[in-house]
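Supplementary Methods S3. Complex input for the FE2/S2 (inorganic) cluster-bound model.
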Amino acid sequence: MGWQRSFLGFFDARFDTDTGRKLVEKQVFKRLPPHTGWLHVFASLSLFLFISQTVTGILLLMYYRPTPEAAHKSIQYLTGEVQFGWLYRQVHAWGATLMIMALLLHMCRTYFMGAYKKPRELTWVTGVLLFIVTITFGFTGYLLPWNQIAFWATTVGTESAAKVPFIGHWLQYFLRGGDVVAGETLSRFFVVHVIILPWVLTGLVGLHLFLMRLNNLSSSKRVDESEEFPPETGIPFFPVHAAKEVSVLILLVAVLVTLSVLLPWEIGEPADPLSTPSHIKPEWYFLPSYQLLKYFEGPYGAFIGIIACTVPFVLLIVWPFVDRGKERHPRKRPLAVSIGLVGLVGALFLGWLGHVSETDINVFGQRYHIDLLGWPHKLADGEEGGGHDGAGGESAPGEH
Amino acid sequence: MQYKQKTSRRGFLDWLIGLCSAISGAAMTIPSLMYLWPAAQGGESSNVEVPGAENLSVGTSTKVQVGPRAVIVVRGRDGYVAFSAVCTHLGCLVRWDPGKKQFLCPCHAAAFDDKGQVVSGPPPGPLEPYKVKEVSGKVFVSSI
Ligand code: HEM
Ligand code: FES
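Predicted complex, serialized as structure tokens:
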């Protein structure tokens, strides 16, 4: 086409466009290992969700105001008055949850397929950092609507920071911007959520993708075997793998919008620093730590509790340097796979306990009150388990 | 000989540039770290008037902000008592249950008696007491 040639010709006459074109083509048509398939799409889902969070986040920023007086009202205005404001708020809120789910699936994929092994240890380490940054996004973003649940969940969450050995009180004071959660906290969380973390995450994603492309995706061969494959057996990133990714992305958009319409996130009551509502729980991805912390009480217990919550993350970071086995295929790594499964099931179980704790549940027609620590207590017909005088709390072990 | 002298002069200049960069770096970092350290939050923390305390009936309570913290004031048979409303477990605010004569925490079902001592639940210590003063019918609280 004439206009196209003259358009590109303008640049060709001025820059060394050949080198640039070759670089781009090399990346776009790169051959991925032959086993690359549907399980490999979770990472691009996370990447897409991060982009979606950035776009919807910037849109929300047009109306959001980060002060205790205005924050809650500005969100009400945004969702009630602004055209499609509700949609962007819902897509941002659901996007956060889906992004963490996609990351967890991506981590499981790389863990069980042994993709973290030499030479990709640093890809894994940057990945764990990405995960930590992402949940920090969740923690800081949760406070921004300045509603009761967010205010008190943040109070309890930052209170746990005070249990960190030696520096806990300073850490808590620093996080809150003072003694209690207040306007200073909102400003801090706001800046971290909308400026600092997005740039940190952008840098980390860039590094992560760069490392991933440098070593290509892993094969299922042993670490000491060559990972070379005949190029004609490889899967071209474009168009073959990209087509898989785009089809899953379309599905994801449908899921995002469906969730936003059918299960919208509530705005809730505005924060009241003089009264705590009952049943404050953190977001689902903090439930395992939330529940784990409950088992460690008293001055020394709290120490141990915080350490118990940190160890899994430290273990994740150092894991490629701990597991130096040469095999990648899951069937040849029974120990690593068992450890992974135990960790996964343990986290899911703790999270579930955290979710049902201090509620009444029904098991085959028998009602139980689940206390703070997750112990079930049988309830007689019509008895209410909640509150202070039910079967809960008082009789649980560890509370005497 | 001449060559050697040259390199050592250059070495010295390199060293000087390094030192000056380090000093400028520190000079820029330290104030920015101090800037990030929280300044005191506003609010009076002594002799804060408890609004409407004189109208409380015996056995009921109200809350007031003292400095940055919430304080709960209960009118007893013989005068007022005040405690920090902040549960010593994880920082939720307790409420006063007039029937049981206990402070109850909504978060993990803790109970404190009317002296602020733990009756049940996970808190590691008692509620922090506040000083109460009555001046010509008005009630004032201060941190101890
Ligand atoms: C914003 C977050 C993240 C984005 C956008 C992202 C993106 C990607 C992409 C596009 C790939 C290539 C496709 C694939 O291998 O599935 C990849 C590879 C990889 N990622 Fe992530 N990732 C993120 C977080 C993580 C996390 C949390 C971990 C693990 C803790 C991780 C570990 C890895 C590893 C080890 C590889 C190499 C996989 C291989 O060689 O087969 N990533 N990442
Ligand atoms: S915060 Fe009061 S019992 Fe946990």
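The interface with chain A takes residues 36-38, 40-41, 63, 65, 67-70, 85, 90-93, 95, 97, 100, 104-109, 111, 120-122, 124 of chain B (CB under 8 Å). The longest strand of chain B covers residues 69-76.
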